[in-house]
User: What shape does this take?
Amino acid sequence: MQHTTTLKKNYEFRRLYAKGRSAVLPALVIYARPNRGGGSRVGFTVTTRLGHAVVRNRIRRRLREIYRLHEAELKPGTDMVVVARGRSVSASYRDLERDFLAGCRKLSLLREETAP
Assistant: This one.
């Protein structure tokens, strides 16, 4: 991840849940809020209700990779939490990627394309 650090503290996640904007999609929910620093921060949440550790870690790895590949397209200076939902267990990588990008578009997190 180029300019991104991870959210690790419980109060950071709680602040985003309470004060951030959200985009609800079939496989995931994205919470986002601008931060005061220049860099972005991201956190991933996969609840134990979705399965045992192998299943949860597979979902988390996929979400991290999707974020890593599209990080350059996102505006800097944003805190983001990606929460996996029940459908993310059976969703393909492409479905997760499509939902992630749709959520980022909904929250206006993607950079504007400069047309020549």
Notes: Strands lie at 4-6, 21-24, 28-34, 40-45, 78-84. The mean pLDDT is 92. The chain has one domain: 22-106.
